[in-house]
């Protein structure tokens, strides 16, 4: 069973998903996410994210996408946020580019 996230929590979850694409969670990536929410929310979502398998993370995205991004405009807004997250450390790597394309199709 996937956790229930409100909109802000799900955005944080997606930003974590994006950040871990290249298996390097930089200080800049962490700082950018922490600036989007309070400490308690960050800790809660980070803990849940780390306790999940790759399959569970994908299932969580699938289970929440319709609720949080029902329109093309909302989907484009979150993809823009994720692109900025990928760029925050100055290295938009090939795996990150591939993940952004994947999330574009998935969401």
Structure characterization notes:
- 73% of the residues lie in helices and 0% in strands.
- The chain is mainly alpha-helical and 107 residues long.
- It has one domain.
- The protein starts with 6 loop residues before the first helix and ends with a helix.
- The mean pLDDT is 93.
Write down the Rg: 13 Å
Structural category is mainly alpha
> Mean of the pLDDT scores?
93
Biggest sheet layout = none
Report low-confidence residues grouped into runs of 5 or more: none
Instruction: Specify the helix fraction band.
Output: over 70%
Q: So what's the overall shape? A: globular
What is the H-and-E element order?
HHHHHH
Distance between the termini: 19 Å
**Separate helix tally:** 6
Number of domains: 1
Per DSSP, what share of the residues sits in E-state strands of 2 or more residues? Answer: under 5%
| Number of DSSP-assigned strands | 0
Write the layout of secondary structure elements.
Blueprint lengths: L6 H13 L7 H8 L4 H13 L2 H15 L3 H16 L6 H13 L1
Helix pairs in contact: 1-3, 1-4, 1-5, 5-6
Give me some keywords for this one.
0% strand; mainly alpha; 6 helices; 73% helix; 107 residues
Brief digest:
By secondary structure, the chain is mainly α. The chain has 6 helices and no strands.
């Amino acid at each position: 069973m996937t956790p229930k996230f409100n909109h802000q929590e799900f955005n944080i979850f997606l930003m974590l998903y994006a950040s871990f694409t290249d298996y390097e969670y930089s200080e800049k990536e962490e700082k950018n996410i922490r600036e989007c929410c309070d400490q308690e929310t960050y800790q809660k979502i980070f803990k849940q994210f780390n306790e999940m398998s790759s399959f569970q993370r994908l299932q969580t995205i699938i289970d929440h996408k319709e609720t949080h991004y029902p329109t093309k405009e909302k989907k484009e807004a979150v993809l823009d946020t994720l692109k900025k997250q990928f760029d925050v450390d100055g290295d938009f790597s090939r795996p990150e580019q591939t993940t952004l394309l994947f999330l574009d199709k998935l969401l």
